[in-house]
Amino acid sequence: MVQDIFLNETAKFAHVFLPGSSFLEKDGTFTNAERRISRVRKVMDPLGGKADWEGTVALANALGYPMNYSHPSQIMDEIASLTPTFTNVSYANLDQHGSLQWPCNEAAPNGTPTMHIDEFVRGKGRFMLTGYVPTEEKVNARYPLLLTTGRILSQYNVGAQTRRTENVAWHEEDRLEIHPTDAESRGINEGDWVGIGSRSGQTVLRARVTERVAPGVVYTTFHFPESGANVITTDNSDWATNCPEYKVTAVEVSRVYHPSEWQKRYQAFSDEQQRLLDERRQARADAKVEVRR
Amino acid sequence: MSNESLIKMANQIAQYFATEPDEEVAVKGVRNHMQMFWTPGMRKELLALQSGHEGAQLHPLAQVAVSGAGWGS
Fold first, then answer.
1. pTM of the model
2. Percent of chain A whose pLDDT exceeds 90
């Protein structure tokens, strides 16, 4: 089950898709990284029919767990009754102050702009020794280049939102950036289709020959799902945070003339999902015409 | 979770705490992480691995952290 304001990539795997509401279509609050809770007010009714909280209420009721909220302020009241750092948070209090920073309770009725002024909960803090731990991912004769992946300003992650905009004029495809020396020794020219293979998988992108990358390093963005950038990255991740190691993958690059097997499978799957969606839309449109008759 | 993944994760945690000069603190660090962030099932599986012949693949700090944790009782 997927809920979103766009039919994103994950939606292709969903059995059920629920419409989401944007920040302009719902009442509620946002809490930012400085613990500041601010009100959000809708300027229009949700195009999908329900604000997100209404969707959650309807789903809970359908699944047999009754929820009877009639306004998001009641949900905030429940949060305040259960969360010691939110005791004094209410829509009335938020309206009065404009915004509030938690902890906001009897000890700090108007919120807490700065925390840990004299010391942390544990005292003055704790310093840890951290030794350098090299990655297990190593280049060798078979995979002599290091791939690093990253973002570009004009697209956001896999582009579910930004690929729908004029931003594609700035970045219309993911390319593999490769240094002229590495390109020349492999017979690769600007714009050639190149296969990128790692111990994990293979994909195909067009090459951009550039001195922006150092010899021995290749780089690509991951803003287009069909690029399959994460088909080639490894499963390595940081032990404490599980942050994936997307910046270091040993690869080899060569000229090719066909998409990778993964890309062929992805395209077939994606086309099939689009066909099913079109069929369903057509069926609904036909049914509406039938009703009007 | 596969035995290989469990051992890899345990060894990464141990490798991090290996820079701590006080071994007792280091052992506690490894054990605490597993107690706070691992599921009971993962801890049980790792204990079984440590007691069996695959335990040899575990970092010495992970060995001590697991064997003295009392997870078997």
1. 0.82
2. 83
